[in-house]
Amino acid sequence: MPKILITGMSGTGKSTALQILGSRGHRVVDTDYGHWSRWINLPDGSSDWVWREEAIADLLAGHKQGALFVAGCKSNQGKFYPQFDHVVLLSAPAEVLLARVTARTNNPYGKRPEDRDAILENLRVVEPLLRATATMEIDARAPIAQVVEQLEGLA
C-alpha cells in the first residue's frame, strides 16, 4: 500500500491537499497537529518542531490498506524516507507563500513578521535540501485540484 510524504514550505498547500485527499477516502495525516510532533530544545538553546519518531514509525509500519498521505516538514523526516514510496515536494515562489500565509484563516503561522522571515530563510536553506531528496516536485502555483490529481496519481 503506497505511503506518500507531502513536504514543502509553509503556504504550499500541504494541509489543503490533505483535506481534499481525505474527502476522497484516502487516509491522511497532517503531522503539524495531534501527537505526531513535539518541540525539542537544541544544544544552542533554540527549539525545533520535530516528528515524534515512535509515533511516525508505528504509523508507517501499521499501514496496511489503501494509500497513506502524510504531510509535514520536519528536520528529522529524512530518517523515514526509506519507508515512503514517494517524497513529494510542493514548491512555490516566496511571494506566493507569503501571500497565502497572510490570507489563510485556519492557521496563525505566517502572520507575524518573524514567521515570514523564517519562511523566507527556510525557502533559502531548507527547500534546496528537500528538493535534493524528493522523488517528485509539484509546482504548488497550479490549481489545488491539479496538485491533488498529481498526488492521487502516485497512489
What does this structure look like?
With 155 residues, the protein is α/β, with parallel strands linked by helices. 39% of the residues lie in helices and 22% in strands. It has helices spanning 14-23, 53-62, 94-103, 113-133, 144-153; strands spanning 3-8, 27-30, 37-41, 47-51, 68-71, 86-91, 136-139. The strands form two sheets. Strands 2-5-1-6-7 form a five-stranded parallel sheet, with helices on both faces. Strands 3-4 form a two-stranded antiparallel ribbon. The longest helix has 21 residues, at 113-133. The protein is globular, with a radius of gyration of 15 Å.
What is the radius of gyration computed over CA atoms, rounded to a whole number of angstroms? 15 Å
Order of helices and strands: EHEEEHEEHHEH
Average pLDDT confidence is 96
Note the overall shape: globular
Low-confidence stretches: none
